[in-house]
Amino acid sequence: MGSGCVIRWGKRVVVLTARHVIMNGRRVFIRHRLRSIRCRVLGVDKKWDVAILEPENTEGLRVVQLASFKSSRLKIGERVESCGFGNPENKLAANSGLLRQY
């Protein structure tokens, strides 16, 4: 069991999750509102513990809109912060600083 988020990746709708959740599976299932949806594993990265899955049926899945620097209202010199477990040591990391360029 694990968690993930549904995002749009080009023309595809995919699920972004942790690699350790799917281990070495080629086909996995996600649960959404009491139903199972079969997914194909598009890619994994062991070092960063990330996996990208493609659901066979995307009906009813709520797609998260990812922000990008081009679509955001950030300005040079503004403070930005991030936190999460996105590192090979699986330790919580937090970052903050001033936006210099993008």
Automatic annotation (TrEMBL):
Gene3D superfamilies: Trypsin-like serine proteases (2.40.10.10). InterPro entries: Peptidase_S1_PA, Peptidase_S1_PA_chymotrypsin. SUPFAM superfamilies: Trypsin-like serine proteases (SSF50494). This is Peptidase S1 domain-containing protein. It comes from marine sediment metagenome. The lineage of its organism: unclassified sequences, metagenomes, ecological metagenomes.
